[in-house]
Design goal:
The protein has helices at 2-28, 31-34, 60-74, 80-104, and strands at residues 41-52, 107-116, 121-127, 137-141, 144-147. The chain has 149 residues and is an alpha+beta fold. It folds into 3 domains: 1-36; 38-52 and 108-149, OB fold (Dihydrolipoamide Acetyltransferase, E2P), CATH 2.40.50; 60-104, no CATH class.
């Protein structure tokens, strides 16, 4: 019977030592490894860079286009035909000048699609060229993408 008691004591000491050892390992594990759930983290699915035209022109392009179109239209026809061509040239030139100015003042924009850790997909628009390749690990900070630390 003393053997059984000695065995029980050894077993109890071994179990306690093992638990203390495991507790020390868990306590020394960094918090980031213990808590792998990052609610504002995700992985970049894709990024698409494009030119977004300016929303409004300053008016310079429209005025310049209207003057140039009116002058060209005035070179065509005689009498009422010339007047009609001048007006049509001014309207067409103004429209074209405004469109050209918007294109000249366009901005480079990148749309980044991110699959968040919770499975949802979010889109982010950033100014400039693409910074995030597919597969990049990112996190959302104040509505913008940042590298995951």
């Amino acid at each position: 019977m003393t053997r059984f008691t000695t065995f029980n004591r050894l077993l109890a000491h071994g179990t306690i030592s093992g638990l203390l050892l495991l507790g020390g390992v868990a306590a020394s594990t960094p918090a980031s490894a213990r808590s792998s759930t990052c609610h504002n983290c995700g992985t970049v699915i894709s990024s698409h860079t494009y030119q977004r035209p300016a929303e409004h022109g300053t008016g310079v392009g429209m005025v310049t286009g209207a003057v140039a179109g009116g002058l060209l239209g005035n070179q065509i026809g005689k009498g009422n035909g010339r007047t009609l061509a001048t007006v049509a040239g001014a309207v067409g030139g103004g429209y074209a000048g405004n469109a050209i100015e918007k294109r000249v003042r366009s901005n480079t924009v990148t749309q980044v699609r991110v699959r968040m850790n919770n499975g949802t997909i979010r889109n982010f628009n950033e100014a400039g060229q693409a910074r995030w390749p597919s597969g990049a690990k990112v996190r959302v900070v104040h509505g913008a993408l940042a590298p995951r630390a």
